[in-house]
Write a structure and sequence with these properties.
CATH topology of the largest domain: BirA Bifunctional Protein, domain 2
Largest sheet: 8 strands, mixed
Oligomer: single chain
Structural class: alpha+beta
CATH class of the largest domain: Alpha Beta
Number of domains: 3
CATH architecture of the largest domain: 2-Layer Sandwich
Distance between the termini: 59 Å
Strand content: 15-25%
Strand order of the largest sheet: 11-15-16-23-22-21-20-17
């Protein structure tokens, strides 16, 4: 669209009459006066143009106004919203850092001459005539520099919660930060004292885990929290576009689908009192779920494709960098699926958008800002977007046996893969164009996997295998596992008999006990289906570059620790 002002023609790139974002175009006159042109009858924002503005600059200003629209609690012009008094309208630090007014008039036009920032003091430097405070609010790894008077800085210390009102202007020292907040009013909302356990100096992750209620105030931990939120949003969008139905499965269950017996019992027994039958609230023993798989299988035969992101609980006494007693699993099931390839493709379709988003998002920039291994972190993200390697379990064992690497546990076909084996496979097999990709290990021995997995069409010479896979990455090793499920009644009963879950191939309802409902699914309209479970905390930890899965959980629980 072209706008004519005197002898000047202003072209607004990309703006048709219907798409025009501006109500008026404001053009600064040579002598300081301003002229206005009405371009469209709307209440949408103004576009500010200096006399020297080019068409390209006009387009940039138009895009800047779009960013203003995204400012939390702001109107289209960037002013704090005055419609919700109780919300104490304010602007986030992350949004403010993106605003780059060129002069006072531009700042006033964008509504940055009077802004409100709510946040916490990350550091403060007091000088004779002024003080400089670094303000963070959890929206960015970087802090906002606020310029205070000595009177305003009095009584302010590290960790204090403050509300700042002021103007956003070019910085006096642009080498440190291009813009800063000149504070006209400071409200001390929440003071601290010398007993505050968080300090400006470095504090180890181990120490911070002792105070999970406070550690999210550390900028890096806040960045991990935002990353988790972004990842959940991407997963939800991806699966929704693939016509998956999100569901919530029960936390209290009657079965242990993994068959490992490492479950938490639900009981109403009083402390110190021996547990008896009367303490079974549900008339029989129940447990905290170890997986949502069995329930998802039931639901998938109703609506086709289902998924859930739900907590799981395992009473493992493993005190490693990869284990938690309470963790989140992303699980999905698909009906009318006859190939394990479809299940593996689904996992890749979910994780690839998360990795790609990190290359362009503010969250990704924050993770890089905090990392000492930036190139390695970028390599992890890029590796997830490449083709993933695939190897059978039998091939993996042969590679391990042929390796000159000395393992603590000798690789044996019937013994399974130990953590050291998984790390070796992830590092050696996953190399792709100088990047390490995730690795699928497929077709494990039947005796190493749960009863519900479908037998492979062709078994290995060493023994029978099943159509299943584990997904391995460096450091965190196994992050996902999936399989085709046995959908036929008699083969399922035979597998249960082999595991001594039932006494015969024609068990009674009492003998089936808590698995009766699961067996019933094979009697009426059962179809081929498959699915997976993904350790959500582990894959996020791998993408974030943290060494311990406990950093990815706000309130981690592991053997011996359940704080808060």
């Amino acid at each position: 669209m072209n706008l004519l002002l005197g002898k000047r023609t202003i072209h607004l790139a990309g703006c048709g009459t219907r798409q025009l974002l501006a109500r008026r175009v404001k053009v600064a006159g040579r002598k300081g006066c301003h002229q206005y042109l009405r371009a469209w009858r709307s209440t949408l924002p103004l576009i500010y143009l200096s006399p020297a503005s080019s068409a390209h600059q006009a387009a940039l200003h138009r895009k800047a106004m779009l960013r203003n629209l995204a400012s939390p609690f702001s109107t289209s012009r960037g002013h704090p919203s005055r419609g919700i008094a109780s919300a104490r309208p304010h602007t986030s630090v992350a949004w403010m850092l993106r605003q780059k007014p060129t002069d006072a008039a531009h700042a006033q036009f964008l509504g940055l001459d009077k802004v409100v920032i709510n946040g916490y003091i990350q550091s403060i430097r007091n000088q004779k005539q002024r003080s400089f405070a670094a303000i963070g609010d959890g929206s960015s790894m970087q802090t906002l520099q606020a310029l205070l008077t000595p009177e305003q800085a009095r009584g302010v210390s590290y960790g204090c919660a403050v509300r700042l009102t002021g103007s956003w202007k070019p910085s006096l020292k642009p080498s440190i930060q291009s813009h800063e907040l000149h504070v006209s009013r400071l409200d001390l909302v929440g003071p601290t004292n010398t007993s505050y356990p968080l300090q400006k100096k470095y504090q180890s992750p181990e120490y911070l885990r002792t105070m999970p209620h406070l550690r999210s105030r550390i900028p890096f931990n806040a960045a991990l929290l935002r990353f988790r939120s972004d990842a959940i949003a991407i997963v939800t969008k991806t699966l929704s576009e693939m016509a998956f139905v999100q569901t919530h499965t029960p936390i209290i269950t009657s079965s242990d689908c993994e068959g490992a017996g490492e479950v938490f019992h639900v009981s109403t027994a009083s402390k110190g009192k021996p547990r008896g039958p009367e303490d079974d609230f549900f008339r029989s023993p129940k447990y905290l779920t170890v997986s949502s798989q069995l329930h998802l299988e039931a639901l998938s035969q109703s609506v086709g494709k289902v998924w859930t992101l739900s907590p799981s609980f395992r009473a493992e006494r493993s005190d490693t960098t990869r284990h938690l007693s309470e963790f989140y699993q992303l699980e999905a099931e698909m009906s009318f699926v006859e190939s394990m390839d479809d299940v593996m493709h689904l996992i890749r379709s979910i994780l690839t958008p998360i990795a790609r988003s990190l290359g362009t998002s503010q969250t990704g920039q924050d993770l890089l800002y905090a990392s000492d291994q930036k190139e390695e972190l970028r390599g992890r993200w890029h590796g997830i977007t490449l083709d993933w390697k695939r190897i059978t379990y039998t091939e993996a064992i042969k590679n391990l046996q042929a390796s000159t690497h000395i393992f603590e546990h000798e690789p044996k076909w019937a013994a399974g893969l130990q953590t050291e084996h998984e790390k070796y496979i992830a590092q050696m097999v996953g190399v792709n164009a100088r990047h390490v990709t995730p690795v699928f290990v497929t077709h494990y021995p039947r005796l190493l996997k749960p009863f519900y997995m479908l037998s492979s069409a062709e078994s290995e010479a060493e023994g029978e295998t099943v159509d299943c896979f584990d997904l391995l990455v460096p450091d965190f090793c196994e992050i996902a596992g999936g399989s085709m499920r046995e959908h036929r009644l008699q083969p399922l009963l035979a597998a249960m008999l082999q595991r001594k879950l039932i006494p015969s191939l024609e068990p009674s309802d009492d003998q089936l006990r808590d698995l009766k409902w699961y067996v019933d699914l094979r009697k009426w309209g059962s179809v081929p289906h498959g699915g997976f479970g993904l350790g959500f905390d582990r894959i996020l930890g791998y993408m974030a570059g943290v060494p311990h899965v406990r950093e990815m959980v706000t309130f981690p629980r592991w053997v011996g620790r359940c704080d808060c």
